[in-house]
């Protein structure tokens, strides 16, 4: 693992310290790595949804409502 030095706003540092104190994470580094992973996962999910919705819009035909289509996409993504 690479070692980094970052500067945090006091409020963010306090939040990280609290996460460790409450035993949500073993260290501030673990918390930061978790947050980065969640952000990457969210971006992948957002990109996937955008792609599927774009593809559906371009197909010119669907019997599904927007909500049904979104639900189907979410279900498929969660099963991957």
Task: Please give a structural write-up.
This protein has one domain (10-78). The chain has three helices and no strands. The protein has helices at 10-21, 28-58, 66-78. The radius of gyration is 19 Å and the shape is elongated. The mean pLDDT is 88. It comes from Kaistella jeonii. This is CopG family transcriptional regulator.
Write the layout of secondary structure elements.
Elements: H1 10-21, H2 28-58, H3 66-78
Helix pairs in contact: 2-3
Give the helix/strand class.
Answer: mainly alpha
Report the radius of gyration as a whole number of Å: 19 Å
- Tally of helical segments: 3
Counting DSSP E segments of at least 2 residues, the number of strands comes to 0
Summarize it.
It contains 3 helices and no strands. It is mostly helical and 80 residues long.
